[in-house]
């Protein structure tokens, strides 16, 4: 029995050291340009002090791939920052992490993806949330039990994937340039937080259209989000809900689920500022998923959002 315990202990020590070394290799060499590292950058954007009230878009990749911040800023005459990144981190962690950064006078445009209101999607998925421990501003104390399970499950898988894929791409790009194919990288973002590298590449139409949203409506998470919004409004932060940027097919396919979201938000004094159809686009304006717009789509959507905001921001601030 003693020999078995010694072997088990030795294996645990060896495994922990091995994973630790991979973690360091990934963090300081293979994953220095990892797409999710942009999360920390966006946190710094939110905290920037500006002379005029700043407008901050928050959501998943529908925001990251969907707006041109400068176009909107030039139109509404206010600084605009894009704090959208990727839905798989989980809207709960995203907003829990960013909430303390908002200042009185800030205007937060909140655009959770429809999936975030159903099942456990608000808590993230292992493939993406497993990267959180790599972030320099990771706040593990914000995780609830479900999130902790997701991150723990995903961390080892993420570490192994980065080691394998990272080594492959390092070697590949050492011998030939990346070419005309999109790669998810932190360097693909501009100084306002917009993902711009995909706009110069040909569309990848393999994964667009729509998919059904499964799972029960997550009333618990919705209430958590609404409590945060009410708290921010009490602090003098203006929070406006917008539907996510997506495809017409997505809105049509999930009409019942979206109506449920609309009614819940409206009942809490947080109704969508515009209808879901207003930010739903044909497949010709999508890039590579139902939530990502191509260059033409970004231009159309940015002009549309600028028009909505010019009207909305003329209305007085009200606590709700």
CATH architecture title of the largest domain: 3-Layer(aba) Sandwich
Structural class, from helix and strand content? alpha/beta
Q: Per CATH, what is the topology of the largest domain?
A: Rossmann fold
Total number of beta strands? 6
Order of helices and strands: HHEHHEHEHHHEEHHEH
Query: From the alpha-carbon coordinates, what is the Rg to the nearest angstrom?
Result: 21 Å
Low-confidence stretches: none
Number of separate helices: 11
Helix content: 40-55%
User: Could you say how many structural domains there are in total?
Assistant: 2
Strand content: 5-15%
Q: Briefly, what is this?
A:
The protein has 320 residues and is of the alpha/beta class. It is built from 11 helices and 6 strands. The N and C termini lie far apart (64 Å).
Q: What's the helix and strand layout?
A:
Blueprint (H helix, E strand, L loop, with lengths): L1 H29 L7 H10 L7 E5 L1 H4 L4 H8 L3 E3 L8 H8 L8 E5 L14 H4 L15 H31 L43 H16 L3 E4 L4 E2 H6 L1 H13 L12 E2 L13 H18 L8
Parallel strand pairs: 1-2, 1-3, 3-4, 5-6
Helix pairs in contact: 1-7, 4-11
